[in-house]
Amino acid sequence: MELLLHTHVLLASDKAVLAGLEGKAAPEATFASQLLGGNNDAVAQDTLVQLGQKIDASAAESPEALVGLTREFLAAHFGPASGNSQGLFLAIALLQCFIQNNCTGPAIETDILDLVYAVSSAEEKTRLQSLLVQSLTILGQPAYELMASPECLVLSLLLLELLTMSQSLFGDNIAEDIAAPEFPEGASGLVAVANWWRARALLAHLSVVPEPSGNQPAVAAGIMSSVNIAQAIANQLPAEVGDDLKRRLFTIYYLENAKVSLAINTEHLCLPALTKAKKLTEFQFVLTGARARRTKFQQTGHSGLIILAASAQADEAASAPSQNPEAFQLESDLLLEKPVFDAIGAEPLDEQIVKRQKVDPDAEVNQGIDEDRLLPMALRQEYIPQVLQALDPNEQPALNNLDVVQLLLRLYVIRQTSPAKDPLVEEELGSIVSRVIYQHGHANWSLFSRALWERSILETNKAKTVERGLLQMQSLVEELALKIQTRLIPQNADADENDGSHSSAPRLKYIHQLPFIPRWELDASLAEKYMSLGVLRSAVEIYDRLHMVCEAALCYAAVGDEKEGEAILVKRISECPSDARALSILGDIRQDPALWEKSWAVGKYVNAKNSLARYYYRPPKDSGLTLNYDVVLGHLNDSLRQYPLSFDTWYFYGCVALECEKLGVAAEAFSRCVSLDETHSMAWSNLSAAYIRQDKLKEAFSCLKRAVGFDAQKNWRIWENFMIVSFRLQEWNDVLTACKQLVGIKRDKQGEGSVDLPVVEKLVELLVSTEYKEDSAAQDYFQRTCIEFVCVTLPTVITTSARLWKLVAKAELWRRRPWAALECHERAYRATLHNPAMETEEPAWDETVDACEDLVAAYESLGEREGRHGPGSVVCRDWKYKARSTVKALMSKGRGRWDGSAGWERLMEARSAI
């Protein structure tokens, strides 16, 4: 029964599911009911008051000492030996209180610090809060000093460490490798629940520091890396539990798996988890095009993107009434509030066919929709599933909230994996948020407000909507009601305090499936927008109010006022000498290695080591230093030992190792890169380069196949390496594919220089060594593709190369097309004849004579063969006349300059032999 209660709390089920259980499993059911109802502070207060004791922290002078005292207190009352089963409920309640106070609002009224610590004065309370904030520092990155209720997060983290019997992540003496928990078959479901909550708490911890670092990301990812954690819970649930609860459990797991990847900057690992969540909920959605009117004056629609989406399952009843934030109107005299779409497929089918993009039929799956894309796309009307075709694009139904979460997570993945401010990407993101905002029916507060926030981010990038975007951002910051001292937007005086808008339950319901955005991060994003628009003063005022010293300094540095940025950082360092991030940023502005070294000594701040590595890799000219690979690799190694999840650092590490011929190190570095982002084509290519230099051709070939598979930008260097390695391994199909790609990529700039002659010669040699089959269906891939490449593609590229024309002639003769082969010999001769060097250089003259002799021989051997029109026709009836004319014309051109030369004598012999 306890596991079932914890499962409902984990999944934020509707409070009504616990009806009738409170009397049977008290007090656990009472706690569960209170947590699901949003009364998290009540659970924490009841549990802590029952202890009847408080921590005397008056002697604690350091964060480490305070954490030690707190851990001992919690271990005595909630540790494995205490027999108290309320520890997990308390940890959950404290975490939810912290999130409520800092991310969702409204703020709780209970003072948790007074319930845990013996506080004698306001000064003592401030000192304890400062120590608690300092204890949340991760590798030199101080936690946000103005966060609310830091004691809630610290207590929750410590409790969850005790309950899961895990190694502590507090303090500086952190082990470099911490094993992630395992959940084999038969593992305790309650232990799995505790670890799941610990992963959530670690993500909350990461949200209070500027960048993910330390062991917290690896531990959180390790906990959520295997579906066994959800399986362990599902296996031990009571038999009467239906499949719906288990399906929701696994869906929530996959969504949070994707969230963890986003939080620790490994967003390329999100797609498999999101795909599985989509299948579990049977969610159908597709990105397609439709005509839309965007202004009040448009009479006809213009092309636009739209998300058609429908949920297979209705959402469960809302746990509490919720008044969503106000969606500000555009109030534009030109733009419509939202686009008005024509009916999907209203365009005649024949027009769709004319405008259809060229798509490889072999790449189309599921009737034209690729389900493995972040946004499955339907290029034509008939590819859209029937359920979605029936939707009115302007009145789409409300989605299940878990399906809304899926769309929002896909939005974040697309944003983090796409170029910034790309117009097409922004159109895709806009179609996602529009589908969430403009749906009809119930909308959860957190999901709706998050969609509004993302729409605002997009709108501030456009001149016509920037005003509403900024106004909406300001409104959402103030909507949290978290100690905002000044309000730019007045509240409705008639708002009823009991209207549900201040209920915490709906705000917390899906917060663990969405990336955490604390209130100060919202404010900082608003400041960034002001800075991007040139409103520097407003941006700095926000940073000053938030006490974000480093961000304010970076703001000044970004606009060229580096002296002011330095002054702010110097003042911060004098007040807080242990702020490693401030030291490192000051070092970046001054380019001073001593500051980076000090930052590393103070807090093991990994960016300081990265800056040192780049400094010594390309030292300034006036520094007197020279490039020292060992020093650079040493700094990068120190950085990676502290934070091994940084793709950029691994990539730089591998490039430096490759440059100084430390091939084993380079291979390891790029292997780590592709494990973090398997879609990075250059990482695969560089890994192959390390293997090539070690003569590990098979491994290099495997890496290059992955590289070209992910090479969306068509990098010719990757394809050239792929061709060379394939050639050495005699993988002729791949050689041919690479050769074709290289010609396609480079032909516009290099023309026939895009063709690798020795490779094409080998391909043609292999082609003509096989038996020619008239029926194309009977030809294998190599024959069919090579014929197309040599006989169709190459003639459109060749301009001056006689060798290439002769190769085409060879292939045409093999195809039993002697007339085409003769044409190629004629073109080869003309290409040589037009060489200006022929008139001044004898080698060029001799080369032209050779080509003439080859053409004469071709006339003689091919002229009387059966022509293109079948029996009765010949290739060239007057071949003797043409051969004689060719020789005479060349002799006329060389007369007076090349008389008596060896080439001239050969021409004389050829003329007499015809």
Automatic annotation (TrEMBL):
TPR repeats lie at residues 681-714. The keyword Magnesium does not apply. InterPro entries: TPR-like_helical_dom_sf (IPR011990), TPR_rpt (IPR019734), TTC27/Emw1 (IPR044244). The keyword Iron does not apply. Keywords: Repeat, TPR repeat. PANTHER family: TETRATRICOPEPTIDE REPEAT PROTEIN 27 (PTHR16193:SF0). This is Tetratricopeptide repeat-containing protein. The lineage of its organism: Eukaryota, Fungi, Dikarya, Ascomycota, Saccharomycotina.
